[in-house]
Design brief:
ABC transporter transmembrane region fold, Rossmann fold, 10 strands, about 65% helix, binds adenosine-5'-triphosphate, ATP-binding, cell membrane, transport, ABC1_TM_sf
Length: about 625
């Protein structure tokens, strides 16, 4: 659990202004608080950058001095002085290059360290956000905040920030030197550049907009292509290849159009920079010569001006480009800081924490109500007691609130009213490490990771310390335990049929296994996790009769001796449970044994009669 997710941190976060409303400086300040490494040794880096920028002005200075005081010296060419000046300039340039390299290395180090902290804090926080927030926030955008937004920031921090500084410094130093040589010519140079300074930022914003359109079109193209690949079977089965092709062609054409539009504008921006630079050179030559003839300017100074103008053009163009990058980085920072500020809605207990030791688990709902954010109540006034070691089947129409009930027990979110108690203790007072050890949820579609069956089962292993499940399962004792639970659940016959048994790869999300086989792996994983309270969301997907028998056997074995709450989609599960709970429109409307409820003329009796008529 990261420091940022403690209740105190969350409270502190909620007192601060949200990141999305912060100005540029405030965003940078807060970013520096989150990643203090970014400021490591910044003063030295800045000093080195100043030296590097100043060193570049040495060439024009040396040219002027060499021409005016060595080549055109009153007593004839002074070779020694010329050599000395060139030597000093070369030395200065070498020192400048060294400083520049050091600046890069130092910036790279501090920014990598800072961004590592930022990325890992953001990732851990995303992980700590409730399942609810992750759903509503769209997982994709959360992932992009942790990856591409941090990359945008990284681009700016590693390159843009310092280049902006160096560019501005270079412009200042070059202007100062130009002013010393000739204020008239300096004014002329600035007069030529000013329109560019006004127009460039606008053009640059246009370029940004057009590149945003390119990214959008590119995303649409990727979406169309990947959908066609994933849905290849359906496309072939329905003979809609031509239609799909047209969609892809349109997306490709859209990307091309957007790209051409963006590139056209880039060409305009680039050419206008070159045009102005050349224009300024011409102006300097003409005006410089004129001033020279009038006796106001030496040959060396005119030549130095030509070099200085070169030093001026690059930074002007670069600074506008970097200012844009700064805008992107600032919005990236705001988004990442926004993630860090999202309060954790299932906070860890504070001082009121109560230990929850292993052992038979009793579950109680007292006056539980729940509404999803901005939604109507989906559970109301739920009172229920499940005795330790018993099995409960929750039944009800689709959308009645069964899964929500189970999610509250797993503490994916907290009830908006009332409380859920484990052995009489409110879940909000139980440390998540204890809760995860005691409550194990088997979702309808257990997620399988790319790896072998054994590795996937081993996700159920817990470290001795408690909460971190082991993913390797490679230690000999782990492999033994994996094989043992597989045997206990009666999976050895199935595993023996597979080419590599437990070492069989499952593919991404388990796509190499059938739906029934994936369930078997998920059940073995839950068995290894060995909780006291089992939450089973019964799979609705149909499996073949052999798999059905295997799953049934594994389920019975898994549930033996544990408190079990099953969201039952098959009424046969309800028949076998100790207690049946009927949920209707968010309320518990009937509770009793199967026999009791069928004897009543209630909702369960009607559901059961309909099911019997359908299946038997
Ligand atoms: N993440 C969510 N955000 C907003 N509303 C939700 C969310 N999940 C479920 N709901 C709503 O809550 C209600 C209860 O849903 P729930 O999944 O608990 O029903 P269920 O009985 O498990 O249904 P099913 O048998 O189809 O799985 C539904 O109206 C559903 O639309």
């Amino acid at each position: 659990m990261s420091a940022s997710t403690s209740p105190a941190a969350a409270r502190q976060d909620s007192r601060m202004a949200p990141a999305s409303t912060l100005g540029v400086l405030a965003t940078l300040r807060r970013a520096a608080q989150v990643s203090p490494e970014l400021l490591d040794g910044l003063t030295v880096t800045l000093a080195l950058a100043v030296v590097a920028a100043t060193a570049r002005v040495l060439v024009p200075l040396a040219v002027q001095q060499t021409v005016d005081t060595a080549i055109l010296a009153p007593g004839g060419v002074d070779v020694r002085r010329a050599a000395l000046l060139v030597g000093v300039a070369a030395l200065g340039l070498a020192v400048g290059a060294g400083c520049s390299a050091l600046v890069n290395v130092r910036l790279f180090r501090s920014s990598e360290a800072g961004l590592l902290t930022l990325r890992s804090r953001a990732f851990r926080h995303v992980h700590d956000l409730s399942v609810l927030t992750q759903n509503s926030e769209r997982r994709g955008s959360l992932v992009s905040r942790v990856t591409s937004d941090v990359d945008t920031i990284s681009m700016f921090v590693q390159w843009g920030g310092i280049m902006l500084l160096v560019s501005v410094l270079q412009i200042l130093v070059a202007t100062t030197l130009m002013a010393v040589y000739s204020w008239q010519l300096t004014l002329l140079v600035w007069a030529c550049f000013l329109p560019l300074l006004v127009v460039l930022p606008r053009l640059q914003r246009g370029v940004n907009r057009r590149y945003a359109a390119v990214r959008e079109q590119y995303g649409a193209m990727l979406g169309a292509v990947s959908e066609a690949v994933v849905g290849a079977e359906t496309i072939r089965a329905y003979g809609v290849a031509a239609r799909t092709q047209r969609r892809i062609d349109a997306a490709v054409a859209g990307t091309r159009r957007a790209m051409v539009r963006a590139q056209n504008l880039v060409a305009v921006v680039f050419s206008s920079g070159v045009l102005v630079a050349n224009l300024v050179l011409a102006v300097v030559v003409v005006a410089g010569t004129w001033l020279g003839v009038a006796g106001d300017l030496t040959v060396g100074r005119v030549l130095a001006f030509l070099f200085l103008v070169q030093l001026f053009t690059g930074p002007v163009q670069m600074a506008t480009e970097i200012l844009n990058e700064l805008q992107n980085a600032i919005s990236g920072w705001r988004r990442v800081l926004g993630v860090l500020e999202t309060p954790v809605d299932v906070p860890e207990p504070g001082d009121d924490v109560v230990p929850s030791p292993r052992g038979p688990a009793a579950l109680t709902f007292t006056g539980v109500g729940y509404a999803y954010p901005d939604g109507p109540p989906v559970l109301q006034g739920v009172d229920l007691h499940v005795a330790a070691g018993t099995s409960v089947a929750v039944v009800g129409a689709t959308g009645s609130g069964k899964t929500t009930l189970a999610k509250l027990v797993a503490r994916f979110m907290d009830p908006t009213e009332g409380a859920v108690l484990l052995d009489g203790v409110d879940l909000r007072r139980i440390a998540s490490r204890d809760l995860r050890r005691r409550v194990v949820l088997v979702p309808q579609e257990g997620f399988l990771f790319d790896g072998t069956i054994a590795e996937n089962i081993a996700y159920g292993l817990r470290d001795e310390g408690g909460d971190r499940p082991s993913t390797e399962g490679s230690a000999p004792q782990d492999a033994e335990r994996v094989a043992q639970v597989a045997a206990e659940l009666g999976l050895d016959v199935w595993l023996a049929e597979l080419p590599s048994g437990l070492a069989t790869p499952v593919g991404q999300r388990g796509e190499l296994l059938s739906a029934g086989e994936r369930q078997l792996v998920a059940l073995a994983r839950a068995r290894l996790a060995d909780g006291d309270l089992l939450l089973l969301d019964e799979a609705t997907s149909a499996v073949d009769p052999v798999a059905e028998v295997r799953i049934g056997r594994a389920l019975r074995e898994l549930a033996r001796g544990r408190t079990t709450l099953t969201i039952a989609h098959r009424l046969s599960t309800a028949e076998a449970a100790h207690l049946v709970v009927v949920v209707h429109a968010g309320r518990v409307v009937e509770v009793g044994t199967h026999a009791e409820l069928t004897a009543r003329d209630g909702q369960y009796a009607r559901m059961h009669a309909a099911w019997v008529a359908q299946t038997r």
